[in-house]
Amino acid sequence: MGTASKKAICFYFQVHQPFRLKRYRFFDLGHDHYYYDDFTNESILRKVAGRCYLPANNILLDLIQKHNGKFKVAFSLSGIVINQFRLYAPEVLESFRRLADTGMVEFLAETDSHSLASLKSRNHFEHQVSIHKKMITDFLGVEPTSFRNTELIYSDQIGSWVTDMGFKSMLTEGAKHILGWKSPNYLYCNAINPRLKILLRNFVLSDDIAFRFSNKNWSAWPLTADKYASWLNKLAPKSELLNIFLDYETFGEHNWKETGIFDFLYHLPDAILKKTPFKFMTPSEIADTLQPVSAISVPSAISWADEERDITAWLGNELQVAAFDKLYDLAEKVLKCDDDTIKKDWEYLQSSDHFYYMATKFFSDGSVHAYFNPYETPYDAFMNYMNVLSDFEIRVNRGIPAEDDHAQAARLNLLLAEKDKVIEKQTEEIKRLAGKAAKVKPRAKPVVRKKKLAEEVQSELIELDIEPPKAAKRITRAKKNKTGTVRKTTRSKTPVSRKSSKK
Question: Does the annotation mark 94 as catalytic?
Answer without folding.
Answer: no
